[in-house]
Q: What sequence folds into this?
């Protein structure tokens, strides 16, 4: 049962997660954090978050679960920022489409107070921004959860239950297997399509 939930990064995925949590998990307070005040205000007006802050340390201080929703290259940086500010027993996950570097950073930075469990919900749209977020974005989507070998079982269960509540079908792989499979079924076809358009 979540009481305090924090989303860091409020675009399409972050906004849709917030809408999903607020509609499906009763009594849970959703806090948003991002580097742009404009997107946070828009997210609150949309109903994706209850409140917001630009201070990431404040955003995660009381959170039971934190989800990082920003570009893959930025996630390790934010993991380092929040690592020492989590409360005991908190769990951190993310939405990144590649996992090895992110899970390595999570293992290094989220160790003292909380636990990190990587995840990749395979959902999205050609549109971007919190304005196009929707509560049913994850209905029927596959979410790949990528725990490390020594990740706490309770933390894994919490992340799996979270995505299931939002409508996802859960698959578990280690980070290396995830990256190999996603490269073959998603990243490679995307690169080939882009090359064909270029030709």
A:
């Amino acid at each position: 049962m979540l009481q305090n939930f924090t989303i860091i990064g409020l675009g399409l995925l972050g906004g849709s997660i917030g809408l999903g949590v607020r509609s499906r998990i009763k009594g849970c307070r959703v806090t948003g954090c991002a580097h742009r005040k404009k997107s946070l205000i828009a997210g609150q007006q949309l109903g994706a978050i209850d409140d917001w802050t630009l201070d990431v340390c404040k955003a995660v201080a009381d959170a039971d679960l934190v989800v990082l929703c920003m570009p893959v290259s930025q996630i390790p940086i934010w993991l380092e920022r929040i690592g020492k500010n989590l409360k005991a027993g908190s769990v951190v996950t993310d939405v990144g489409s590649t996992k090895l570097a992110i899970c390595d950073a999570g293992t290094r930075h989220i160790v003292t107070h909380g636990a990190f469990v990587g995840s990749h919900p395979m959902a999205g749209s050609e549109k971007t921004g919190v304005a196009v977020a929707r509560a049913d974005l994850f209905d029927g989507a596959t979410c790949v959860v990528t725990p490390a070998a020594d990740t706490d079982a309770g933390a894994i269960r919490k992340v799996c239950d979270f995505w299931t509540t939002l409508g996802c079908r859960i698959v578990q792989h280690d980070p290396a297997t995830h990256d190999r499979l996603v490269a073959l079924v998603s990243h490679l076809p995307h690169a080939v399509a882009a090359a064909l358009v270029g030709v």
Remarks:
- The beta strands are 4-8, 29-33, 51-53, 65-68, 90-94, 114-116, 118-121, 142-146, 169-172.
- The mean pLDDT is 93.
